[in-house]
Amino acid sequence: FLMKNILDICELPAYHVANELAALKDNNFNVIVLNVFKASFSKVENYDDDVVLYNLHNNLKNYPSVKMLETMYQFYINYKFIDEIIFKHKIDILYSSWSSMVILDAYFLKKRFPHLKWIHRYLMYPASLNKLKVNIENFFLKKYTNYIDHIIFHTGDMKDYFIKNVNSDFKSSSILFEKFNNLYFLEDEQYLNSLSGKFSLIFLGRISPNSENNILKELEALPLEIDIYINIKDEFKYLISNENIKFFDKKKIGIELNLYIQKFDGILSFYNENSIKKERINLVIPNRITLGIPALKRFFIPGNQLFASKKLLKSFDLLCEYNTNNDLVNLLKENN
Q: pTM of the predicted model, to two decimals?
């Protein structure tokens, strides 16, 4: 058995990178990380094992004007640095995920090294909630996806949308959350809830007050008899005034995260009213869902959103749908 060498092209400090690294290493791949974000990192956030990490931006210190360009153009200018990584580590596979910009970076490498296999995982597709941006994204994806050897979708609905709007002729694909056996589950153990005497839910999504996904208004409208634990940057904590909204540190992955989630009465997941009408929200299994599934705790989700996610959770008997605050409180009483 020959260990395959994978070049993971990513934008740190994205939280999903650590989880993907752990999954690839568990499957006996040797992973080299190339961070193409316009900030440099000495390690992959939330990942404690050793990993070889390169920062594209570091190698441009003598070309300050180049740093203003998008990473795709930095790739062109910096090709010798990239080539050295490919040859030094005997890369077999290019791996990319998440953003359209990372796809462009991987496309450049695939064009230079056509013998390398290229795998892309769509965590979120479409990548934007804005209709104009989605149309622009689809235009570019039609050009680049023919070079991808294998595409990983999160749901069948996402794959169908991609076929209809982008490319019906790509080479091969798989659906990550199609069957129960595609997921790794811990044994279902009972843990005492030591957080407080109240019901407590954990929200695993990103809290971004300045983005179109801002959900602070929705969080503050939740019933005060439930403690809601969220992860938010320190600079935004002053915006939270409700005493029932608590904070947790998201520097946990794998089993450590699962054990932490099992202390709660369940997982709360939703988007704001502006977001739930978009294809992106209803076609995908977002990180806020995938991070919580292995803990085998029930998800509490409003009835008018996250349809693909709810289809999956219902098949595992992990779904609780609610429409009002009273519904949410009553569901917690029934399930705990």
A: 0.59
